[in-house]
Amino acid sequence: VTERSLNKITYKIPTGSDFEVKNNKLTFFEKSPFSGENYYTYTANGECYCNVIHRGDEVFRTLRSPTKTALKIKKTGAHTVECRYFVSPKFKVGDVVAMSRNKLRDNCGLFFESCSDIFCERITVNYMHGFGWLSQMCENLSFDKLTFKPASGYRVSSFADLIHVCGCKGYVKITDSHFEHPHDDAINVHGAFLRFRKACDERTAELEFVHHQQGGYKAFYPGDKVKIYS
């Protein structure tokens, strides 16, 4: 926050964060240097349900948003946005507002699927859009000397988990690594339960994903053994 009045606030966007204002909406994006297409787009709207304020040495959550109650949003410079309100949110000049990712996580920062014997070493990650570093249905994962830390001028290293492991087997080793400022867990390792839906015949059953945030991937492979709980 660089300027504030009763019904207007000017925000400075960190260098390196590309954005546009269109149809009174603030949208962030990043383009691929190879294809020129967007890696992601992220519109700051009502789905961004939680924000974090950095005020001096204080850090706290708030439901207040730079854009949620804005009547007019205008790009005023290469790195500045002006928002007009009926009454300005109670931000102060000097506040840093870390806006939460839209809760609809549409992609990952890094993605391993159906891989085996993965070894990652001495990697520094400054920022990941979406779900973070996801390893799904893999076998034997090693992470050594990884550093997750926001780049200079930023406050967030990932919009969700940093290392997220789902449905993997064998081992997961995470050693000598540094985790800083994700929006969710630093490390999350879990499986996925499926619900028995119906018996198709004596040897065939139909199962279903139930959790609203899961689905869209193969939960089993030929040869896997499945245990049914009741």
From TrEMBL:
Matches recorded under SUPFAM superfamilies: Pectin lyase-like (SSF51126)
Protein name (database record): Galactosidase A
Source organism phylogeny: unclassified sequences, metagenomes, organismal metagenomes
